[in-house]
Design goal:
Layout (H helix, E strand, L loop, with lengths): L1 H28 L4 H9 L2 H29 L6 H18 L2 H12 L7 H29 L2 H6 L4 H24 L4 E3 L2 E3 L4 H26 L6 H18 L7 H9 L5 H33 L15
Helix pairs in contact: 1-11, 2-12, 3-4, 3-6, 3-9, 3-12, 4-5, 4-12, 5-6, 6-8, 6-9, 6-10, 9-10, 9-12, 10-11
Length: 318
C-alpha cells in the first residue's frame, strides 16, 4: 500500500506547490496597479525587448550545441543541422512542459530513431544534459556562497561559516566528478549500457555550458528589470535558487514557484517592475522558444518524417 500512496503524493505535490505559489503571488502582487505594470513594460522599449528575445533564443541554441557535443561523446552520428533542430525543439518543449528528462528523452528517442540511435544512447545524451545543468549549478552556487559578504548571510539568517562550507562542498563535488572521470577506465558498463566516462576536458566543457545557461537566463531577467535591477550577483543568486525550486517542484515550467521564490529572495526590488519582468520572462524565455519549436516541428512533419530532412535521411535510407 505504501507504493501507491507514494505515487499519489508525487502526483498531488506539484498541484499543492502550485496552489501555495499562487497564494503567495496573490498576496505579494494583488495590490499592484495593472496600469503601472503596463507602464513598466512600455519602458522596456523595442531595444530591450528584442535583446531579451535574441538572448533567450541564444540560450536554447547554446543548449542545442551542447547536445551535439553529447551526441559525439556517446558515439552517435547525426547531421549537425538535424541535431541542432531536434535539440532546440526538445529543450523548448521540455523546459516549458516540465519533467524535462522524460519529455526531452521521449522527443529525442523519436527524432533520432532513423539514425539508429537506441534508447541507451538517448538516455546517455539526456543524462549528459542534465548533469551539465547540475554542474553549472554547483559551480555558480558554490562560487556565490564562497564569495558572499557577511551582510548577505545576515539577510539570509545564515551563519557565514555554514554558507561558505556548503559552497566549498559544492566545489569539492565538482573536483570529485572531474577526478572520477580522469581515473575511471576507458569504458564503463551500467546494467546493459556501456559508455565512456567524461574526461576532465569534457567536464570543463560541461561546467562552462551549464554555467553559461544559467548566467544568460539571469541576464534576460536582469534586462527586463532595467534601472530597478539589483546588483547582478544578487539577482544571479536568486535566479539560480528559483530555477532549481521550479525544477524540483515538478510544476510545468516552474510556473508560480519560480516567481514566488524570486519574490522572497528579492525583497528590496520594486514589485511592479518584478511583475512586469515575470510576464516578460515567461513570454521571451519560455513561450517564444516554445512557439518557434512547435513551428519547426510542424514544418518538419509536413516536409516528411520528423526524424529526417529529406536529403538528411538516416543511414539506412535509399
Amino acid at each position: 500500500m505504501a507504493r501507491p500512496s507514494l505515487k499519489a503524493l508525487f502526483r498531488v505535490l506539484p498541484l499543492l506547490l502550485l496552489a501555495v505559489a499562487a497564494w503567495v503571488l496573490w498576496r505579494e502582487l494583488h495590490g499592484i496597479n495593472p496600469n503601472a505594470v503596463r507602464h513598466a513594460i512600455v519602458l522596456w522599449g523595442p531595444g530591450r525587448a528584442l535583446a531579451a528575445v535574441i538572448l533567450s533564443l541564444f540560450v536554447y541554441l547554446l543548449l542545442a550545441v551542447n547536445e551535439q557535443i553529447a551526441l559525439r561523446w556517446a558515439g552517435v552520428k547525426v547531421p549537425l543541422l538535424t541535431g541542432l533542430r531536434n535539440a532546440f525543439v526538445a529543450f523548448a518543449l521540455a523546459n516549458t512542459l516540465g519533467f524535462g528528462f522524460l519529455v526531452g528523452g521521449a522527443l529525442r528517442a523519436n527524432s533520432y530513431r532513423s539514425w539508429g540511435v537506441g534508447l541507451g544512447k538517448v538516455a546517455q545524451v539526456t543524462a549528459y544534459g542534465t548533469i551539465t545543468f547540475a554542474l553549472g549549478v554547483l559551480a555558480l552556487a558554490g562560487g556565490l556562497l564562497l564569495h558572499a559578504s557577511d551582510m548577505v548571510y545576515q539577510q539570509l539568517h545564515l551563519e557565514p561559516f555554514i554558507g561558505r562550507l556548503v559552497g566549498g562542498l559544492m566545489w569539492v563535488g565538482l573536483a570529485l566528478y572531474a577526478t572520477a572521470g580522469a581515473l575511471a577506465p576507458s569504458r564503463l558498463r551500467i546494467f546493459k549500457f556501456e559508455f565512456k566516462p567524461p574526461r576532465p576536458g569534457l567536464t570543463l566543457v560541461q561546467i562552462l555550458f551549464g554555467a553559461a545557461d544559467l548566467v544568460l537566463g539571469a541576464v534576460v531577467f536582469w534586462l527586463l528589470l532595467g534601472r530597478n535591477a539589483p546588483h547582478f550577483s544578487d539577482l544571479l543568486s536568486a535566479y539560480v535558487t528559483s530555477i532549481m525550486a521550479g525544477l524540483l517542484s515538478g510544476v510545468p515550467g516552474g510556473a508560480g514557484v519560480f516567481e514566488t521564490v524570486m519574490l522572497q529572495l528579492l525583497p528590496g526590488v520594486d514589485r511592479t517592475n518584478l511583475a512586469a519582468a515575470f510576464l516578460g520572462f515567461r513570454l521571451f524565455y519560455y513561450l517564444t522558444p516554445l512557439a518557434l519549436g512547435l513551428l519547426v516541428l510542424v514544418s518538419a512533419r509536413h516536409r516528411g518524417p520528423w526524424t529526417a530532412d529529406g536529403d538528411d535521411a538516416g543511414p539506412g535510407a535509399p
